[in-house]
Amino acid sequence: MELRHPFLTKPRLAILYGIFWIIASAVMMLILVFANGLDYWASFVEVVSSIFIFAIIGTAIWYVTRFSTIENNSAIKVIMAHIIAASIIVFIWMYLGVVLIKLLHPESIEWMKKGLINRIFGGYMMYTIYVIFFYAVNYYFSFKEKVRNEGKLIALVKEAELHALKSQINPHFLFNSLNSISSLTMTDPAKAQEMVINLSQLMRYSLKHDQHEKVLFKQELENNKLYLQIEKVRFGSKLNPVFEIEEQCLQASIPNMILQPLYENAIKYGVYEATEPVDLKTTCRCTDEFLQVTIKNTYDPNVLSKRGEGIGLRNIRDRLQIIYGNPHLLKLEDNKKEFTVTLTIPQKTN
Q: Are 253 and 320 within one domain?
C-alpha cells in the first residue's frame, strides 16, 4: 500500500489543488465584500480562517480514505472512522480559525458567532467533499497501478509462451540432426564431423539470441543458411538452396528462429522422399511497413505423403499471434507441384 501522499508523488496534482483553492478564496472574498458588506481586510481574514485553513488541514483526509476502504473494512467501520475523523478535523479547523481571527481581526468574532452553526455544518460538508475527492484520486491511481501490473503480467506471460514455443522447435531439430550425424559416422565420418561443427554454430546462435525476440533479417538468414548446409550434408545434390534477397531486406526486423521450421517443413515434405534434385528457393522483398519472405520448394506429388500443418507451422502461427496479434501473416499455397510459404512481418508495430 502506497503511504506517500499523492500531492508529494504527483506535484502537478498539488499545483492544481492550490490553484483551485486560490481561485475559490478570491471568489469567496469578493462575495463577502460586495454581497455581505464586509471590508477587504475582514473578508480576507474570514477567507483565510475558513477556506484557506481547511484547504491545508483537508489534505490529511487522504490518509483516512487510504486506510478506511470498503475492500479492507466493513461499512460500519468506514463510516465510524469518517465520523471521528471529521469531528477531529472540524474541531481543529474551528479552533485555528478562532485563533487567527483574534490575532488579525478581533472584531470578526461576533460575525463568526452568528454563523457558528452554519460554519460547523459547512466544515462537515467540506469534509464530505474531500472524502469523495480523495476516494476518486485513490481509485484513479489504483486503477492505473492495476493496468501497469496487468501489462507487466501480460508481458511475462507472453515471454513465457514464446520461450515455450521456441523450446518445441530446438529439440525437434536437434534430434533430427543427431540422427543424421549418427548415420553418417559409419558411412562418411568427414561429413559427420562437418555436420557437428555446423550444428554447434547453429545452436550457439540459438542460445545467443534466445533472450531477444527479434533480430535483423541478415542474422536470421545467415543462421538458416547454416542450417541448410547441415541438411545439405544429409541430402547432397537432392537439396539445392537458392536465394534471391533484396539488399534493403537485410536490415529488417524478424522474430528469431521463425524461418527454420519453414525450411524443416520444406525438406521433410519436398526433399526427403524426392528422387530428383529439389530447388528450395527463398525470395524476399521489403517496404517500410512489411518484410515479405517467400519460400518455395518443388516436390513429387506421387511420392509425397499427405501434407498437414505440423508442429512447426502451428508454432509459427502461435508466435505471430502473440507478437503481432495476427496468425494470418503466414500463408500457404499448394499447386500439387510446388509448395509456397509466404511470411509477412510488420516493420512498424505499436
A: yes
Does one domain contain both 129 and 195?
no
Q: In b/e form, how buried is each residue of 57-96, taking b as 16+ CB within 10 angstroms?
A: bbbebbebbbebeeeeeeeeebeeebeebbeebbeebbee
The Cα–Cα gap between 46 and 155 comes to 55
The tally of domains found in the chain comes to 2
Residue 173: inside a domain? no
Q: Are 117 and 218 in the same domain?
A: no
Query: Do 96 and 42 contact (CB within 8 A), yes or no?
Result: no
Integer angstrom CA distances of residue 245 from 51, 217, 254, 265? 73, 10, 15, 21
> What is the C-alpha to C-alpha distance for residues 271 and 266, in angstroms, rounded to an integer?
7
State which amino acid sits at residue 303. V
Please name the residue that has the C-alpha cell 541430402: 235
Q: Please tell me the pTM assigned to this model.
A: 0.53
- Give buried/exposed letters for 314-335 (b at 16+ CB in 10 A, else e): bbbbbbbebbeeeeebbeeeee
Tell me the mean pLDDT per 10 residues along the chain, length 350.
Answer: 76 90 90 86 89 91 85 84 92 91 86 83 92 87 81 64 54 70 79 80 68 80 86 83 91 88 85 83 91 89 58 80 85 88 82
Does residue 157 form part of some domain? no
Domain limits for position 336: 188-346
> Residue 163 falls within a domain, yes or no?
no
Same domain, 242 and 109: no
Q: What whole-number distance in Å separates Cα of residue 242 and Cα of residue 284?
A: 12
Please tell me the distance from the alpha carbon of residue 118 to that of residue 58, in angstroms, as a whole number: 18
CA dist., res. 279 & res. 299, Å (int): 9
- Per the CB < 8 A criterion, the answer to whether 343 and 262 are in contact is yes
Domain assignment of residue 267, yes or no: yes
